[in-house]
Design a protein that fits this description.
heterodimer; A: about 290 residues; ABC transporter involved in vitamin B12 uptake, BtuC; two-stranded antiparallel sheet; 2 strands; about 75% helix; B: about 240 residues; Rossmann fold; 11 helices; about 35% helix
C-alpha cells in the first residue's frame, strides 16, 4: 500500500472530522449548559440539510450561499425548542427529559418522511464541485470547503464563549446556575441562547453537508451517533474535547476504512470509544 | 429627646410573615425580619433551623409560600432571581460557589452584571482587590485552584462587584483558619464603613454577635428571639436554642 493512499485517507478523514466536531460541539454545549441530552440532534441536522436542499431546489440558491439563512433558521428553531419544550422539563425527572428530546426526534423524523417521503435527494451542480489534485492527493472541493467552514465556525464559537461577556455568562451558567442567577444573569435566556448556538452549529454542518451528501429523513442518525461518541470521547461540555474527538473519529473512520475494510469502520470507531471510556470515563478533556 | 419619626420611611428589606415549603414539607413558619440601610444583622440558629432557606427566598432561589418580601416597601416576591440583583441585593451563597473553571478576574467581572454595576466595574474591581490583595495576585488563576479561604474572599468580592445595598452572606466563616477569619472580620468592617447593609448567617454565636448590630435567632423554622446583639449575648432563649439548657 502506497503512502499516497494513507495521506489521502488522512486528508479525507480530517475534513470529515471537522464536520463531525461541529455537530458534536452543539450537543456538548447544550449538555454542558443544562445537563440535558438532545436526542433530536441528528434530526435537527437532517432538517438543516433539507432546508438547504429546498432553498436550492425551489429558489435555486446554492447551499454555500444560503448558509446564513439556514444557520439563522436553525438558531430560531433552537430558541423555539427551548421555550416550547425544554424549559417545561428543566426541573423534571431525567426520564421526562429523555422522553422530551427523544419524542422530538421521532416527531421530526416522521414529519420529514410524511412531508418529503424517505427518498434520497441531492443538490445537483453545486457552486463548488469537482476535486483538486495536489501532489497526487485528491481533495473533493465540497469536502474541503465544508471542513474549512466548519473549522471557522468552531473558532468563532470558541472565541465567543471564551472572549465575550455573554460567552462568560454562558460558561458561568453552565458551572453554577444558581450562583449565576443571584448575580443577575438571566439563566433561562442563557439556556435559550445555548440551544440557539447549539443548533446554529448543526445548521452550519448541515448546510455544508448538503452539497455533497444525500439528503433523506434518516440521514441524521449516523451523524448523531458519531456526535454522541465524540462528546463522550472528548468529555461532556468540553469545546476543545469535541474538536479533538470529532477529528479523531474522522481519521479513525477513514484510515480504518483504507487499512482494514470500509465495512469495519464504525466498529473501529466504537472500539476506540470503548478503549477511552474504560481508561478515562470522563472523556479526554472532561471534568466529570 | 426628640428624634426624626421614622414611620413611613420604608425599610431596605422587610420580610413579613414568611412561610416556605419544599413540596409538602414546610420549613419556615411566619418569620418576619427587617434590615435598614447600613445595618449589620446576623441570622442565627442551629443546623436545619431555616436560616439559608430564608435568605434563599429573599434572593428568589426558593419561592414564597405565604407572606411577603419587600425592598424599599415594594414587594419583590414575584420577581425572578436575576432581577433582584438590580434592586441592590447581592447573595453570597453557602459554600462559596465560585465558578470553578473561570479565572478569578472573570468571576469578578461577571459579578458586575447589571447596568449600574457594569458602569462602575473597573473602579469596584480595584476596590475589592485592595480589600483582598491576594485576588489581584491570583487574577489569572482558575477559581477552583484557590484555597478555601481565598475562595471565600473571591465569593465575597464577587458579591460586592454588584454594588449592592444589601449583602447577604451565608456562613462566611465556615471552615476558615483563625487568621483568615480575622481578615474576613476586617473586610466586614470595611464593607460596613462604605454604608452597605449586611445580613449574614453564622453558626458561631459569639463571633456573630460580636460583629453584628442586631440578631435574629431561628429555631425549627420559627423566630425564637431577636434584638440588639449585646442583649442576645447572654439571653436565656439563645442559650436554650443553642445549648438546649
Amino acid at each position: 500500500m502506497s503512502s499516497d493512499v494513507i495521506i489521502q485517507a488522512i486528508v479525507s478523514g480530517l475534513l470529515m472530522g471537522l464536520v463531525y466536531a461541529l455537530v458534536a460541539v452543539g450537543l456538548s454545549l447544550i449538555f454542558g449548559l443544562m445537563e440535558i441530552v438532545n436526542f433530536a440532534h441528528g434530526e435537527f441536522l437532517m432538517l438543516s440539510m433539507f432546508f438547504s436542499f429546498w432553498l436550492w431546489a425551489l429558489l435555486g440558491m446554492d447551499p454555500l450561499l444560503s448558509l446564513p439563512i439556514v444557520v439563522l433558521a436553525l438558531a430560531v428553531l433552537g430558541f423555539a425548542t427551548h421555550y416550547g419544550v425544554i424549559r417545561h422539563v428543566l426541573n423534571a425527572p431525567m426520564l421526562a427529559q429523555i422522553c422530551a428530546t427523544f419524542g422530538l426526534a421521532i416527531a421530526i423524523r416522521s414529519g420529514a418522511q410524511f412531508l418529503w417521503t424517505p427518498d434520497f435527494r441531492s443538490v445537483q451542480d453545486p457552486l463548488v464541485a469537482g476535486r483538486l489534485e495536489i501532489a497526487g492527493i485528491f481533495i473533493g472541493q465540497p469536502q474541503l470547503v465544508a471542513g474549512l467552514v466548519c473549522f471557522a465556525a468552531f473558532i468563532a464559537l470558541w472565541l465567543f464563549v471564551t472572549r465575550t461577556e455573554t460567552g462568560l455568562a454562558l460558561q458561568a451558567t453552565a458551572q453554577d446556575r444558581q450562583a449565576a442567577a443571584v448575580m443577575g444573569i438571566p439563566t433561562d435566556r442563557m439556556f435559550a441562547l445555548g440551544w440557539a448556538i447549539g443548533l446554529g452549529c448543526v445548521g452550519v454542518a448541515g448546510a455544508m453537508l448538503s452539497s455533497f451528501y444525500f439528503v433523506f429523513p434518516d440521514v441524521g442518525i449516523n451523524f448523531a451517533l458519531l456526535a454522541f461518541v465524540a462528546v463522550a470521547l472528548g468529555g461532556f461540555g468540553s469545546i476543545l474535547g469535541s474538536l479533538v474527538a470529532g477529528v479523531a473519529i474522522g481519521l479513525v473512520e477513514s484510515l480504518g476504512g483504507v487499512l482494514i475494510s470500509p465495512s469495519y469502520k464504525l466498529l473501529i470507531v466504537f472500539s476506540l470509544y470503548f478503549a477511552v471510556v474504560l481508561v478515562r470515563p470522563m472523556g479526554l478533556f472532561g471534568r466529570y | 429627646m426628640w428624634s426624626m419619626p421614622t414611620w413611613g420611611v420604608p425599610m431596605l428589606l422587610e420580610v413579613k410573615d414568611l412561610e416556605v415549603a419544599y413540596g409538602d414539607f414546610q420549613v419556615v413558619w411566619g418569620v418576619s425580619l427587617n434590615i435598614d440601610e447600613g445595618e449589620v444583622v446576623t441570622l442565627l440558629g442551629p443546623n436545619g433551623s431555616g436560616k439559608s432557606t430564608v435568605i434563599n427566598t429573599v434572593s428568589g432561589l426558593v419561592p414564597v409560600l405565604r407572606g411577603d418580601i419587600l425592598v424599599d416597601g415594594a414587594s419583590i416576591a414575584g420577581q425572578p432571581t436575576h432581577n433582584r440583583a438590580h434592586l441592590g441585593i447581592a447573595h453570597v451563597l453557602e459554600r462559596r460557589r465560585v465558578f470553578p473553571y473561570l479565572t478569578v478576574q472573570q468571576n469578578l467581572i461577571l459579578g458586575a452584571w447589571h447596568r449600574d454595576a457594569k458602569a462602575a466595574r473597573d473602579e469596584t474591581y480595584e476596590h475589592v482587590c485592595d480589600m483582598f490583595p491576594i485576588l489581584r495576585d491570583r487574577s489569572g488563576q482558575l477559581a477552583h485552584t484557590l484555597s478555601g479561604g481565598e475562595q471565600q474572599m473571591l465569593a465575597l468580592a464577587r458579591g460586592l462587584m454588584a454594588k449592592p445595598r444589601l449583602l447577604m452572606v451565608d456562613e462566611p466563616f465556615l471552615g476558615l483558619a483563625p487568621q483568615i477569619i480575622e481578615q474576613m472580620k476586617q473586610a466586614f468592617e470595611d464593607i460596613r464603613s462604605t454604608g452597605i447593609a449586611i445580613l449574614f448567617i453564622e453558626q458561631n454565636v459569639r463571633l456573630a454577635l460580636s460583629m453584628a448590630d442586631r440578631g435574629y435567632v431561628l429555631e425549627s423554622g420559627r423566630m425564637a428571639v431577636s434584638g440588639k446583639a449585646k442583649s442576645l449575648m447572654n439571653h436565656k432563649t439563645v442559650r436554650r436554642v443553642f445549648l438546649g439548657a
